[in-house]
Design goal:
The complex is a heterodimer of chains A (227) and B (528). With 227 residues, chain A is an alpha/beta fold. In chain A, 30% of the residues lie in helices and 23% in strands. Chain A has an 8-stranded mixed β-sheet, with helices on both faces. With 528 residues, chain B is an alpha+beta fold. In chain B, the strands form 6 sheets. In chain B, strands 8, 9, 10, 11 and 12 form a 5-stranded antiparallel β-sheet that branches. Classes of the chains: A alpha/beta (227), B alpha+beta (528). At the A-B interface, α3, β3, α4, β4 and α5 of A face α16, β13, β15 and β21 of B. β3 of chain A pairs antiparallel with β15 of chain B, so a sheet runs across the interface.
């Protein structure tokens, strides 16, 4: 194996340089320009931290998801906080037949009652750790699944050790893992390839995207997008 | 002692008895054997009963098989661990106990026979002509199978490997043009293949007479005259051999050497599978069952291969120490016969299970075999199904379903309906939804104004401040409103005015005012 091959494999990166792995375009030119590799690190684990719902965290990744789904890769969503809405996904170009949703609370609740389980719009701490464990396991399996293009996960609590495992699973399965977390987690150290914080800008339609961590040196730390 | 000295007295004329009538047919002519093109492989499992009894436990323990009753119990079979303790065949059981901790088993002929039949079902994958040889061997006619399995050495290596996976520790093979001789060679542990009838007498000459399974009395008689090997026995004159000993012996020798036909009833395999492993001690956690499960699945997949079939339903049964039996059916999304896949699914399933009582035995049943989908539609160069390491989506889904429950996996479907909650539905993944290609989802998006990516599971009532709805702060409503009135035809009528709203934090929300009932405000979606 030559050195070039090693470098091309994206597992090796040299500090101070833009990571050599080919990024998966985010679909936002401004953001691609910032990110080392020119897009989402794939394979790799991405954390997207937001303080409030409804500011566009999911829209930020949709162009990449749409592209993956058209390439016949599977999109696996683990424990989404609400129902993914097909018409909106289709409008964004996502092939919804390639979407698989894993929802344990729904599985447990729907089994005996006809009514859908009701979940608080903002996710609080969840008491049942076994549900959390199973979700984490499912997410890891999804990342390791070869035909999975991207796996998305809305976790409750996550420990640093679990994050490390997820990062390894991304590399093993060659997939893009995306975690949607609360901004409170920004202080926690994380082995993720990329961490972004999203903040709405008061009085405008724009959202400020801040790179908290990435492999290599970004050209800028922040950009503004209309999502 | 030389053979000639002993052979002489045998030539003395018989003691007034006439030869039995049957002898004539045996001795007159040695018909040209029609079996000369056949090649038989004998599999001898000298510790069959013990291996069957202990194969569910990874930990090896000294085990013996005892014959006889009460104080006269003697060891008839000992496994390697027992031999290491110094236990020998023929020892009284009490003496064996004195040498160390030993598990003793009694022979159950009916169970042995059943187990051997199951093994024949399994062996049917290698050749269409399989015959059990009680109590611990089976015969396979392999001339036609050699090409497929990479010659004799390839076949034997594969059999050895797969029999190990079934839990047999001691395996001996013998190959000869006649079934009887093949079995003798296997029992004598002469693994060198004898491919022609002409080479048989030489190959058998040094084989001990014990392999013939003669009655003990006869065995002693031969010992008494110093005849110990088949070669020595063959040198005795034919007619006196028949007269002095049993004619059955001569028939058996003729069959072994191919001088007389040796028909074997071909075993007829069954289209179902049921096998059980008893554990040596009680198991409290499902993890302890992994080895037994693997062995049973190896056996099952062999039987399925033999029938060119796959299975969709596995029925695991746990036999508990308190006598109860629990049933654990596993339905597969995609029929399969791949050990690794079935094992993964079963393991994930049992990880979820709590054992209500310790387990003493585990059994696996498959009542229905499905014909393997024909290879005609498949790409010639596609990877073979058996070697497919790559996990496909149905298999991935299977594994997750086994661990997380049947309803945990869902796919998204659209429906032409104006009511937002009807237009998009999550549907539990099942067999048909994965196997049948999904109908192309209708793209509803173009006809409608912007829709949110999240829909709340149910509309959430919003608090009102001064007539304005609020969610984490007062909401600013956009000017456009979308009126949705539909569903009067099926009793779930909605009549709503939808708005896109924004709160102080910049969250974009989809809210509606209910026009029909309460006239209240509800949150129905989030533009995430």
């Amino acid at each position: 194996m030559t050195l070039e091959e090693l470098i091309r494999r994206a597992k090796l990166w040299r500090a101070g340089e833009v990571a050599s792995g080919e990024g998966l375009s985010t679909g936002f030119e401004q953001l691609d320009a910032l990110l080392p590799g020119g897009g989402w690190p794939s394979p790799g684990l991405v954390e997207i931290l937001t303080a409030y719902p409804g500011i566009g965290a999911l829209r930020l990744v949709l162009p990449a998801l749409a592209k993956l789904s058209l390439l016949k890769h599977w999109l696996i969503w683990v424990a989404p906080p609400h129902l993914p809405y097909a018409p909106a996904l289709q409008a964004a170009g996502v092939e919804i037949s390639r979407l698989l949703v894993i929802d344990l609370e729904q599985a447990a609740a729907g089994a005996n009652s006809g009514l859908p389980a009701r979940r608080a719009p903002r996710r609080g701490k969840r008491a049942i750790s076994s549900v959390n464990d199973s979700e984490l396991w499912a997410f890891e399996q999804a990342l390791r699944f070869v035909d999975c293009g991207a796996a998305l996960y809305w976790p409750g609590q996550l420990e640093a050790l679990a994050l490390r495992r997820l990062q390894l699973a991304c590399e093993a399965g060659g997939s893009l893992g995306i975690l949607f977390r609360d901004q409170g987690c920004a202080a926690q150290s994380s082995p993720a390839s990329l961490r972004l914080a999203l903040n709405p800008l008061a009085g405008t339609q724009e959202v400020a995207i801040e790179i908290l961590k990435c492999r290599g040196t970004p050209r800028e730390r922040e950009c503004r997008l209309v999502l | 002692m030389k053979l000639d000295e002993i052979a002489a007295p045998l030539q003395i004329p018989p003691l007034g008895r006439t030869a039995p009538m049957t002898l004539a047919s045996v001795t007159t002519t040695a018909p040209e054997p029609e079996a000369s093109t056949r090649l038989w492989l004998a599999v001898h499992l000298p510790r069959f009963t013990l291996d069957m009894a202990t194969r569910g436990n990874a930990e090896r323990k000294a085990c013996v098989l005892v014959d006889g009753e009460g104080a006269r119990q003697r060891i008839s079979l000992a496994n390697a661990e027992a031999v290491r303790l110094g236990i020998r065949v023929g020892m009284p059981l009490a003496a064996a106990h004195a040498l160390g901790e030993v598990l003793a088993f009694m022979r159950v002929p009916a169970a042995e026979e059943r187990a051997m039949e199951q093994l024949c079902d399994w062996a049917y994958q290698f050749t269409p002509l399989v015959a059990p040889v009680a109590p611990d061997g089976l015969l396979m006619e392999i001339r036609g199978s050699l090409g497929l399995f990479g010659g004799l050495s390839g076949l034997v290596a594969r059999l050895r490997r797969e029999l190990r996976q079934l839990g047999f520790q001691t395996i001996a093979f013998g190959t000869a043009p006649t079934p009887t001789a093949a079995m003798w060679l296997a029992r004598a542990r002469q693994s060198a293949a004898v491919e022609s009838l002409a080479a048989l007498p030489a190959a058998l000459s040094q084989v001990s007479l014990e392999v013939l399974d003669l009655p003990a009395k006869l065995q002693q008689d031969f010992c008494g005259i110093g005849v110990r090997t088949i070669g020595e026995c063959l040198r005795l004159p034919r007619d006196s051999l028949a007269r002095r000993f049993t004619p059955g012996l001569l028939l058996s020798l003729d069959r072994g050497l191919g001088r007389t036909p040796d028909p074997r009833a071909a075993f007829v395999p069954r289209q179902r599978f049921a096998s059980r492993i008893d554990l040596l001690w009680e198991i409290h956690h499902a993890q302890g069952l992994a080895l037994a499960m693997e062995r049973l699945l190896n056996e099952l997949t062999g039987v399925l291969r033999a029938q060119a079939s796959v299975s969709r339903h596995l029925l695991w049964q746990l036999h508990h120490a308190d006598g109860s039996v629990t049933q654990h059916p596993i339905g597969l999304l995609e029929p399969s016969r791949e050990v690794l896949h079935l094992l993964r699914v079963s393991r994930e399933y049992f990880l979820r299970q709590q054992l209500h009582a310790p387990v003493r035995g585990i059994s696996l049943e498959v009542a229905q075999f499905e014909v393997l989908p024909s290879a005609a539609g498949r790409d010639l160069f596609a990877r073979r199904e058996d070697s497919a390491e790559r996990e496909t989506l149905p298999r991935f889904a299977e594994r997750l379903r086994a661990r997380l429950g049947e309803r945990a996996l869902q796919t998204l479907r659209t429906q032409a309906d104006h009511r937002p909650e009807w237009a998009s539905k999550l549907q539990t993944v099942n067999t048909s939804s994965l196997n049948a290609p999904a109908p192309p989802a209708q793209d509803l998006s173009r006809r409608w104004p912007e829709r949110p990516l999240w829909l709340t599971r149910q509309p959430l009532p919003l608090i009102e401040h001064d007539g304005r709805p609020s969610y984490d702060g007062p909401l600013e409503l956009a000017n456009e409103r979308e009126r949705i009135e539909a569903g009067w035809w099926d009793g779930a009528q909605v009549s709503r005015d939808y708005f896109i709203a924004r709160n102080q934090h910049g969250s974009r929300l989809w809210v509606f005012r209910d026009l029909a009932g309460s006239r209240g405000w509800f949150l129905h979606g989030i533009f995430e």
